[in-house]
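LAB NOTEBOOK - FOLDING QUEUE
OPERATOR: T.R.
BATCH SIZE: 2
PURPOSE: Compare the predicted structure-token outputs for two unrelated chains run back to back under identical settings.
PRIORITY: normal
REVIEWER: second-year student, initials M.K.

ITEM 1
FIELD SEQUENCE / FIELD STRUCTURE:
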Amino acid sequence: SIDLHDEHASGEYFFSNATAGIGYHFDINKNSFGLGVFSRFCAASEFSKDASEVFNTALNEQNLDYGRTYKIDLDFSTFIIKGVEVFFERRATERFTYSAKLQVFSASELLDGSANGFIFYDGDITSGLQYDVFYESDPILEREVTSENGSGVSLGLAFRYAWSNKLSFGLAVDDAIGKISWPNAPVTVANI
């Protein structure tokens, strides 16, 4: 899995978290409650500069640089979650509000793994790559696989402090605590 807090060498990282949902919200005194359903696409990737160049070259159907060795370091993870969300917010004082949301969900479309090693091009491609991939459908060998959805739970926390009617400060942390389990996800571990 990807640790976005780790040091990055000359490479890049990509993160996407797109959510859509609908729900119902009601107030009782200084408290707000909500219940809804949601769907979220999550993706993250960390990759070396050489890995980016190799994939970009392949996507554009171009040749790699002749006589060059490319160092490949790639970690990636994508999945979709769908579930229900329970929301609670409390106005503790006139200026301070805090909230929490609990999400319980099923997860699908798993693709999670890494590839490390090298690719050398001298008219032919020579590689020394080790990769491991967990998946719902086999992206490399295209084998028929049976995969069950994962399941998970997540807790989000937030607070807001209003210094005045025009100035406030807030902090929200989605997935402050959470876990997804993929008990029967197929995996491929290989050297090429």
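ITEM 2
FIELD SEQUENCE / FIELD STRUCTURE:
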Amino acid sequence: KEDQETRGERVEGAIFGGGLLDTGDAASLARQFEYYLHQAGRYYGKDINGNYRIQGWKKTISFSAREIDPEDPEGADNALAIAEKVQANLAPDCLYLAIAQRDGKRHLWHVHIVQNAVHSSTLKAMTGRETNRDFFKEHVEEAAVDMGITLDSGKSHPKRKSQDSKSKKRHEHAKQTEGYSWMDDLQARIAQQ
């Protein structure tokens, strides 16, 4: 019970989109999701266990303290605005629910998005780039920058790690194949001064 109360207090805001109506009733929201899932199942069938093959997506957008200040009273609104913009660009006619909250340890903002994987206008499943994680990240970063949020690409940022790793690999490869490293040369020149 204590855990449930803590979780409830951490939910700071929610948005509904893609035609999903906020009725304030969880059962009604579930029925709306089920309706589109059932309609899509008529076209795409069920798997051997009787479950619909096309279900939904769960996505999470996390923010560092530099991107959205944990103490900012508008933090939930900013996080949800980014989620809403991403959903409008990637899947404008897919039902979704987005919930903004702060995590339990460092109180950093994040948004949980639950989305039907079926376009409600066509009843066709999301495919290709629509389901690609990197494509989703690009849209999140674009939405954040459009809102004036400076992206955190510090040492713990995944992009920073991959860039550093690629640079080191290229450096080592060039050093082995060509016998010369401009990085080593530059470090030696700096050390001489």
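REVIEWER COMMENT (ITEM 2): Residues 10 and 101 are 5 Å apart (CA to CA).
FOLLOW-UP: none requested
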